[in-house]
Amino acid sequence: MPMQFSSHTIECPQSSIDPNGVKLKMCAKRYTAGGNGTADAGSDGLTLLFAHCIGAHKEIWESVIERLFSLSGGRVAEAWSFDWQTHGDSAVVNRETFERSPGRAHTGVTAAEWAAGVSAFIDGPLAKGKRLVGIGHSAGGGAMVLTNVNRPLRSLPFVSLILIEPSIIPRELFYQEIEERVSTMEFIVTATESRRERWRSAEAAYTWMRKRVPWESWDERVLRKLTVCRDPLSRFVPPLTADLKEHGLEGPSDGGVTTKLDRKLEALGYTDVESHFLAPVELGRICDSVPVHFVWGSECLVPEFVQRALTDGTEGRKATSVSTVDGGHLIVQENPDGTADAIWKILSTSTLPPTPLGKL
Predict the structure, then answer these.
(1) How far apart are the C-alpha atoms of 148 and 155, rounded to whole Å?
(2) Is this prediction's pTM over 0.85?
(3) Where are the domains of the chain?
(4) Are 205 and 249 in contact (CB under 8 A)?
(5) Which of 41, 145, 203, 287 has a Cα at 20 to 30 A from 152?
(6) Which positions make up the signal peptide (predicted)?
(7) With 0-12 CB in 10 A as exposed, 13-18 as middle and 19+ as buried, what is 62?
(8) CB 85 within 8 A of CB 62
(9) Residue in 327, 297, 337, 352 with CA at minimum distance from that of residue 71
(10) Beta-strand pair 321-325/76-82
(11) How far apart are CA 266 and CA 270, in angstroms?
(12) What pLDDT does residue 68 have?
């Protein structure tokens, strides 16, 4: 029986950037295996929470989630995947708020603010009493770490954290090579702001991306999820739905298709260095209270000295495990099966507490 899903919208905490009483929304999907393949979410089954990288969307995880259900034999009860407030469906529902909040043009939504939205979900009724595993890729890894901020160690919500190619760095290391870091950041921002974002059809978008970096190296299933759109010119039908539900693209009223994610807001995500600095500090605080696992790509772009710093026990940052998956920084998109296998190995070989260690 195919994987089942339901869509949800979570209200985020009030931000000082937005008008009083106006709050951003965060869109999410809950996935279950369907049939008899899913454990009861209220039993000992695990609830997996997924956070994507900059430029992606919640459905980018679907191939990973589907494989995890097939591997877990019912041990995974459910999975939740969240759209950053500027990405995917969240970008659509928040568009009017962004227009009413002039400050957003300068700040976008930081990874720390995304973390606050995920934290609101964790504290709500949909996650109450469940054995949560936080899984984040790139900036999403940092966001998942930051959901623990301001929580007492005895009240941390996770039984485990899995950080996949986390794009976080101790502040002092960033400033050691400040010129190179800033140069790289400026290059990415310029490339993002000038990138094409409109095509005549979803199929044209797919064809264009298939021949270009970084999409040319993506798994076929993942790229098709990005380019699915409710578009009469497209023949693509997504694996999980039969109604051409949009994922990464939408069909504006003036014709063609465009990305839901505004490229200017995406570019602001790359300049959000403060969230990248805060996450290693938080790691040092929580590592004795929650198992933290790192997964890196075999062609990882994160320098080895940064990887070592993120698992520096003298700073309290203790890795429960470190593993490698074939692929580059975007291993979730390039090698979803390998990523799922690495996650499942962690879940199946680790002794996960019945409740978060902080609550024992």
Answers:
(1) 9
(2) yes
(3) 4-177+268-359
(4) yes
(5) 41
(6) none
(7) buried
(8) no
(9) 337
(10) unpaired
(11) 7
(12) 97
